[in-house]
Amino acid sequence: MSRWYANLINFITLEEDPPPENNTTGGEDVMKTLIIYDSYFSNTEKIAQAIGAAVSSLIESREDVVVVKVDKLEQEQLQGIDLLIVGSPTRAFRPTKEINIFLKQMSENQLKGVKVIAFDTRISTDDTDSRILNVFVKLFGYAAKPIADKLNKKGGELILQPEGFLVEASEGPLKEGEIERAKDWVKKGLNQYID
Description:
Blueprint: H1 3-13, E1 33-37, H2 43-58, E2 65-69, E3 83-89, H3 97-105, E4 115-123, H4 131-140, H5 144-153, E5 157-158, E6 163-167, H6 178-191
Helix pairs in contact: 2-6
């Protein structure tokens, strides 16, 4: 059992001493991870799947990582998770309606003791000639930050700054290199929590 996980158990159960380390898996860690996403044109789904593969490569078992589209989510899947990652395409400078509903329906402090990460897919303002779009992005931003803020308000501990992954146009495809960038981003962020 990783020290991070043992400390989490200690915090949740309010024990005075963490449980003894009894890792028989050769130094690998267990981190029950749920990745919830919404996707219209499969771009955000591809990023979610890439992040899932990256997390799986860091922990003991692929079965401990579940990637699910928000409309297929069953509430039981939220039970006992250590890490929740939520992603959405940016639609009108915010997450999709379905992601917003999911976040709103979570109870207060439902994510207490859960590490959280947020991401989105977006068009870069560098790829447009629209001054108005640039102004609106500066005013309203993208989907990842509001997702992160809501996860935090539900008790989650944000462990990575929200990140956006770039698409060529509103329907995609993803820009070259974004899949690898997503994997690297989550691995770099999780390495500090996994022995």
